[in-house]
Amino acid sequence: MIELERHIEILLLSNDCVIVPNFGGFMAHHVDARYDESDHTFLPPLRTIGFNPQLKMNDSLLAQSYIEAYDISYPEAIKRIEDEVNELRQHLENDGRFELNDIGVIYLNGQHHIEFEPCEAGILTPELYGLSSFEMQPVSAIAAATEKPMTIAVESKKKQDEQRSVAVEQEAEEPLKLSSNIFVNDDDDRTVSISIGSLRNLAVACIVIIAFLLMPSPIGNGKHNTQQTSNIDTGMLYRIMPRDISLAKALPVKTAQVQATKPRAEKLDTAKNAVDASPYYSLVLASRVTRKNARAYVATLQRKGYAEAMVLPRSKGAKVIYGKYQSEKQAYRAQQKLNDNKEFADCWIMLVKPSKKANG
Questions:
Q1: What pTM, to 2 d.p., does this model score?
Q2: pLDDT tens-digit readout, 96-120
Q3: Which residues on neighbouring strands pair with residue 47, listed in sequence order?
C-alpha cells in the first residue's frame, strides 16, 4: 500500500521540498493572487507543487517521517520507502498514470519520461485557508449595461412630452362653448358631462346640512343634570390599580434560586472531571510526530469527515489518535470498521491514561 502521498502532504506544510529517494523531488512554491480576464474572476493566492525527477538523493526527511509515524528504525523506513517506490513504478508501467491524492497526477509521456500535473486547487496551506475566488465585471461593461436603460427611459419620456404638447395645442385651438352643460376631458380621452342645475341643487343641500349641524341643542334639564354628568366616579380607578408595587420581596427568591443551583453545577463539574480522568482506549494513527505536524494532520482528517481525530501530547512530540472507547473490545470493533480506509490501514489500539497534570 502506497503511503507516500500522506507523508509528502504533511511534510510540505513546513517544508518547501520533499525528496523521494530514487524517484524525484516535490517542490512547493507560492502563486500570487491574479485576475482571469476570460472569466472576469479574481483568484486567491495559493501554494502549488512542481516535480523534478533529477532530485533523487536521500536527504532523510521522508525517512524521518516514516520513523516517527510507524515507530520503526531507519533501515526499516528506507526499505519501506523503496518498496512503495517500486510499487508506484509498477502502477506507472501498467496504467501509465498514478494519482497522489491532494497533490497531483504522475504520468508517463510519449518518450516514457515521468511528468507531473499538480492539483488545480493547490496544496493544503493553513495561512491561505478560507480564501475563495469572486467575479467582478470591468467598469466599462458595467457602464455600458447601465447606459442602455437610461437612454430608453429618456427617449420614452421625450415621446410622452411630445404627445402632451400636441394634446394641449389641440385643446387651445377648439372654440370655448358656453351652455347648460360643462365638458371635462380626462387623460383617457373620455368626456364627462355635468349639468349646471345638478350642481346648484347639490350646493343648496350642503348649505342646509351645515345650518342643521350649527343649531344648538340642550344636553340636560337644568343644573341638576349638569352636575350629574360632570361627577365621574374616580374611585373605580383606585380600586382597579394597586396602591403600590414592591419589588424588594421578589429579590430573595431569585437569590435563593441562584444559590440552590450552585451546588448542582459544582456536582456536574466534579462528575465531568471524574469521567475525563478515567482511562480509555483509542486508535493510534501517528506516533512520535511533532506537535505542529500532529495538529496539521488532525486538521486534514477532520476535513475528510473524521471528527473524532485529536492530538495526544507527550513529553517528546505527540500522537494522533482517534476516538475514546471504554473497553478494548469496543476499540477493536471500531478498528475493524475503519480498517478499509487508507487513513486507518496501519493504526493500532492503545490504552490512554490521562495524566494528573492535564486533569488538574
A1: 0.38
A2: 999 988 889 999 988 888 999 998 7
A3: 30
